[in-house]
Amino acid sequence: MTRKTVLNETHRALGAKMVDFGGWDMPLNYGSQIEEHHAVRRHAGMFDVSHMTVVDLHGGRCREFLRHLLANDIDKLKTTGKALYSCMLNEGGGVIDDLIVYYLGEDFFRAVVNAATRDKDLAWIERHAQPFGVEVRERRDYAMIAVQGPEAREAVLGLLDADAAAVVRKLGKFSAAEVAAPDGAPLFVARTGYTGEDGFEIVLPTGAAAGLWERLREAGVAPAGLGARDTLRLEAGMNLYGQDMDETVTPWEANLGWTVALEGDRDFIGRAALERRKAEAHSVLVGIVMDDKGVLRHGQRVLTPAGEGEILSGIFAPTLGKAIGFARVPQGAGEALHVDIRGREVPVRVVKYPFVREGRPREGI
Amino acid sequence: MQEIPGDLKFMKSHEWARVEDQGTVTVGISDHAQGLLGDVVYVELPSVGDHVKAGTACAVVESVKAASDLYAPVSGEVVAINEALPDRPETINEDPYGDGWVLQIRPDNLAGDLDELLDPDAYAESIEGED
Questions:
Q1: How many whole angstroms separate alpha carbon A321 and alpha carbon B73?
Q2: DSSP string, A15-78
Q3: Which of A232, B8, B17, B109 is deepest in the core (most CB within 10 A)?
């Protein structure tokens, strides 16, 4: 059965082209995906991300539980409101999901996990929370709107009264706070996102979502769909679960080693397998750019001197005017690779990413 | 949706064909097709002089969403390609029946091939109910 967010009618009224995404009926675009992409890079755009799963964790042993559950170290969170990006691994070190967790108190953490992985994530979290006496509460009463772009923060601040604006204005990157909207609705505002731009992700009661969406639109924020979300996140060098990593690979194979905290002897799920894997030869994820005309796409074959690889995520990058991608290739594949596009071997370059930073192509790309 | 010009013939796979005064056939994709594809970002064209066969792929139109083969509505020799498309592929979105044309074919068997194509009303009917 297809699920709908509380903004479904709003999207349809705006003429959105709707698609199924992980069992949800979501807007792909509202006309032109490329214009929506540019709106976010140059001004401000907003995404309905209410399909994502908000999970509140309550209990005195929350931190202890998360120390065990997550590959990143929850003890990096020392200040209320701070957020951490982490993978959640199975015993074999495979990635069950990637998530953001917010520290809201020693007995209250909030996690946001992916939509398509909701069922298995909840089952896994609940199973492991039980011994710690941590209560796992899915917040289906919440919607979520991401407002992103160089003008996003000002657009949101302009909708708040002075007290709330003062709090939100002070939010550092990867931090969140709860404030009241002028109509009294509680807004959980986080300075996080999935576009590489500044902005906020706002969690709020479903009943208040359509109102906030409309006020943001009046403030000049452009509605943007999943299509633009995908090109923005890839330009920003961010992984997409299910495409760039899944349970068949460890963070080492997804270039997510930076999110794994192996310091000390913290006993987290998957640790033993990760340590073994690290010492073995394994494939790696690299960023690639294609200077020839054409489009890189998921599933294309990558040819390297060290053997074959494949494109995980591939797009035409609107900010760059050319195709970019993530590829999984054997170790030692080198810098000059080829991609098989309909039988043609097209040269591509391995590059450091993010491909786009602060709205501009990274040097050398 | 843009109105379908009356002088066009269509394939079910959304290509249009227009017989020009000099007897060549101009080919493009329908407004409906460009809407399905979304923003077009790349077009792979055949070479002038290539021979194409009706019902087989002769070009590729790639959008942000997918790569899509363009099938030749008639058999014959490619006598022109739209040289503007590699630099401005979005022309296909903006003007699918005009400046967004893709190629021109000098047909081998015009009358026979045309019989296989749909007139605008039949095409409109075939896409009715499609998203």
A1: 31
A2: TPEEEEETTEEEEEESS-HHHHHHHHHHS-EEEE-TTSEEEEEESTTHHHHHHHHBSS-GGG--
A3: A232
Helix (H) or strand (E) holding A284: strand A284-290
Domain B9-116, architecture per CATH: Beta Barrel (2.40)
Distance CA A338, CA A7 (A): 43
Sign of CA dihedral A265, A269, A272, A275: negative
Kindly report, residue by residue over B31-62, the tens digit of the pLDDT. Answer: 999 999 999 999 999 999 999 999 999 999 99
* Best residue in B34, B36, B40, B41 for a mutation probing chain A (most A CBs within 10 Å): B41
Kindly indicate the confidence band of residue A364, based on its pLDDT and cuts at 50, 70 and 90. confident
Return mean pLDDT, chain A: 97
Q: Distance (Å, rounded) from C-alpha B127 to C-alpha B131?
A: 8
CB contact under 8 A, A316 and B64: yes
pLDDT tens column, B72-121: 999 999 999 999 999 999 999 999 999 999 999 999 999 999 999 999 99
Amino acid at B69: D
